[in-house]
């Protein structure tokens, strides 16, 4: 099945992520991973998940692979009426789900504590991990926190997400 896709790449890319949506005759209909914006852009994941997947160089080719994956999942869903992947909720709940997956925890408060430690520095390695595991950070969440801290784009996204999660009080 053919569909025409438009990708809007902002001048401020990669600080602002592209959006993509179907143009012309719509083939993707009645799908719950289309954003409720004016153009019906594709929901490719939370901004942090997209940024993580675009590392290390934020190439547009990698972004196009995300679109191909999205379309593959859609056509599978359309044919078999089941999702072949674990889904995220939309909005704040989806942001929280993304971080619980990233940090391999089910504790929402631990996510807030972990994000609140950013930026993490080498001197924090031997402190107890903020997740509450009673392990040193270097044996627990140091790798994920350091990866976020090393990238200005990931760090800014984590701070925006932390503000959203704290402000919405969804814990």
Reading the helices and strands in chain order gives EEHHHHHH
Largest sheet: 2 strands, antiparallel
**Number of helical elements:** 6
- Sheet-strand content, in percent, reads 5-15%
* Oligomerization state: single chain
Distance between the termini: 42 Å
* Shape descriptor: elongated
Total beta-strand segments: 2
State the helicity in percent bands: 40-55%
Structural class of the secondary structure composition?
Answer: mainly alpha
* Rg on CA atoms, Å: 18 Å
Q: What key attributes describe this structure?
A:
6 helices, 171 residues, two-stranded antiparallel ribbon, 2 strands, mainly alpha, elongated
Descriptive notes:
This protein has 171 residues and is mainly alpha-helical. It has helices at residues 47-54, 60-80, 91-102, 108-116, 142-150, 152-168; strands spanning 4-8, 19-23. A two-stranded antiparallel sheet has the order 1-2. Helix 1 (47-54) runs antiparallel to helix 6 and helix 5 packs across helix 6. The termini are far apart. The model has no long low-confidence stretch (mean pLDDT 93).
SSE topology sketch:
Blueprint lengths: L3 E5 L10 E5 L23 H8 L5 H21 L10 H12 L5 H9 L25 H9 L1 H17 L3
Antiparallel strand pairs: 1-2
Helix pairs in contact: 1-6, 5-6
């Amino acid at each position: 099945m053919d569909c025409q896709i438009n990708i809007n790449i902002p001048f401020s890319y990669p600080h602002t992520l592209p959006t993509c949506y179907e143009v012309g005759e719509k083939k993707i209909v009645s799908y719950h991973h289309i954003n409720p914006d004016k153009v019906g852009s594709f929901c490719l994941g939370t901004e942090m998940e997209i940024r993580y997947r675009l590392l290390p160089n934020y190439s547009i080719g990698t972004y196009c692979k995300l679109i191909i994956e999205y379309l593959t999942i859609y056509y599978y869903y359309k044919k078999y009426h089941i999702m072949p992947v674990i889904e995220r909720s939309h909005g704040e709940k989806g942001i929280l789900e993304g971080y619980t997956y990233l940090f391999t925890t089910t504790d929402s408060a631990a996510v807030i504590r972990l994000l609140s430690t950013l930026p993490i520095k080498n001197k924090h390695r031997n402190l107890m991990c903020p997740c509450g595991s009673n392990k040193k950070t270097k044996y627990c969440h140091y790798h994920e926190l350091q990866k976020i801290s090393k990238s200005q784009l990931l760090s800014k996204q984590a701070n925006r997400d932390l503000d959203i999660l704290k402000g919405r009080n969804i814990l």
